[in-house]
Amino acid sequence: MGILYDYEDVVLIRQAEKPGDPTEITVNCPDKIGLGCDLCRIILRFGLSISRGDSSTDGKWCYILFWVVGKPNTRWNLLHKRLLEVCPSCSSASGISYYKPEFHQQPKPPDVFLLKFWCYYDRKGLLHDITEVLCELELTIKRVKVSTAPDGRVMDLFFVTDTRNELHTQKRRDEAIYHLKDVLGDAMISCEIELAGPEVTGCSQGSSFLPPAITEEIFSLELPNGHQNGSPASNTLIVTMDNSLSPSHTHVHIICQDQKGLIYDIMRTLKDYNIQTSYGRFFANAKGIFEADLLVMQADGKKLVDPNKQNALSSRLKMELFRPLRVAVQSRGPDTELLVANPVELCGRGRPLVFYDITLALKILKIQIFSVTTLTHEVSYIYMLSK
């Protein structure tokens, strides 16, 4: 493990031979804390589910194997490129690649662009159709402000970043506007894309108008009292830690109900706690029960022996697996307000495709949205007013 002859072989994708069979994704590259989280995030962003996985590392190089299932129209070449981008770099000499230690520097935050357009009228599913186009264009939605005027016209403000870092070019902007016009049709009045200045970005954050009780519940990182121990709902949520099975690692065993993005939630939590995963095996059975075995250590190479640290990590894992999304519904006069929140990584990135999934669900339910606001707190926060 660790010797590569072609940089492209750092990530290998072997597509399924039969419909319904999983596709294998193999990653063999220098290791770093949080690599599993970064890889799982990209896989989730492409709409794929991880059905099984294995990972191991010798402290410098890692070998990771994912079995994924998902959409038949997955852009595998683009997925390969995006996975390759998050793998630590190698240096090449005489055709042989070897590990090159990296000096960790805070990357420059991506430029935020304001996508602003007016529509003559609204329709059910319009917001999801726009969101789908932006996802296909690899434009990441940071914040959204949607409002409907009394005359029925709609103003949409999307604050986005560009995965390709090309939105400053006219060609890329024309491409985005072309695809948006294609989905909006004659409903579009105008569409503009511009670099968002600090004052505009600051105004987009807005403020929360939630009642204190809902704010406390939806932003809480603690398990509800009824689910701490012994309740029927928590019987399929087990997190245990054992230091007796390995001389140098803490064994973490997890059993829970399978759900979308589950492995990402585990890896994100470990990354936030600066925990290194030396070995991992996880799978979901036919009954929808997920099981994972992990051998982990702290960043200093030591076991996790402090009971307080163990309890903190165990509680946080249980919380993230119990409810990765916080959802609340309340009435506002004749309208209904839907609030959805999910934790963000320490680097500020929220869970992929949350806004996409929400708008898709409301489109399927034929619920019309006439106002949307997204905010950033300890969690990514979205609220929608619908009729």
Automatic annotation (TrEMBL):
Keyword rRNA-binding recorded: no
InterPro entries, per the entry: ACR1-12, ACR2/9/10_N, ACT-like_dom_sf, ACT_ACR9/10_C, ACT_dom
One Pfam family, short name: ACR10_N
Keywords (A to Z) from UniProt: Repeat
Domain named ACT: residues: 115-198
Tagged with keyword Amino-acid biosynthesis: no
Protein origin, superkingdom: Eukaryota
Annotated GO MF terms: amino acid binding
Spans through the membrane: none
Function comment: Binds amino acids.
PANTHER family: ACT DOMAIN-CONTAINING PROTEIN ACR (PTHR31096:SF74), ACT DOMAIN-CONTAINING PROTEIN ACR4-RELATED (PTHR31096)
Protein name: ACT domain-containing protein ACR
Organism: Vitis rotundifolia
